[in-house]
Amino acid sequence: MTAETSQTLDRGLRVLKLLADTDHGLTVTELSTKLGVNRTVVYRLLATLEQHALVRRDLGGRARVGLGVLRLGRQVHPLVREAALPALRSLAEEIGATAHLTLVDGTEALAVAVVEPTWTDYHVAYRAGFRHPLDRGAAGRAILAARRAPAAEPAYTLTQGELETGACGAAAPLVGVTGVEGSVGVVMLADSVPERVGPRVVEAAREVAEALR
């Protein structure tokens, strides 16, 4: 480092890069080892980054990149939506249900892109910006399932009536998108999710992940 650079800022940026390079987050101890600094320094760095929503810590204490990183660029969310829209539109039209891309924001699931089918007589009204707890609804549960088995092949999650009475959902996690936790899913008014929907949602999640890489 030169005299013109900030050691603290340099370390903070290194923390963000380290977290961006892992899908599963890092503990304070792991960050301390990788940075070559003591745990107290890491705690201070994380606390500062958390204040700006650049880092978040899950219930297990693992630090992950926060959505504040996305907010640094005003056009990032529109770009994410734009990248995901073709796969979501195809999914919505084929299934005849509202399709969505959901990302983790702290302890909540945040819908960042939504596409409604054009040909159905009725469908669930689901809007971008809608939030719900991660442990409720197919979108959040799919993300949690991927956390529990990060090395497993992507699988779909089904739910019934958890967010809206009479509605059911299917979702599959995004896999292989560094620094981003999310899922792709559909929500429909039905007693149960048709058998063909789950595999189709997994396929759409793969397409969105490819578009975001």
UniProtKB/TrEMBL annotation:
What are the UniProt keywords, alphabetically? DNA-binding, Transcription, Transcription regulation
Pfam families, per database record = HTH_IclR, IclR_C
Which PANTHER family does its entry note?
A: HELIX-TURN-HELIX TRANSCRIPTIONAL REGULATOR, ICLR FAMILY, HTH-TYPE TRANSCRIPTIONAL REPRESSOR ALLR
Q: Name all IclR-ED domain ranges.
A: 68-213
HTH iclR-type domain segment(s): 6-67
Protein name, as recorded:
DNA-binding IclR family transcriptional regulator
PROSITE patterns referenced in this protein's UniProt entry, alphabetically: HTH_ICLR, ICLR_ED
GO molecular function terms attached to this record = DNA binding; DNA-binding transcription factor activity
Q: Name one GO biological process term.
A: negative regulation of DNA-templated transcription
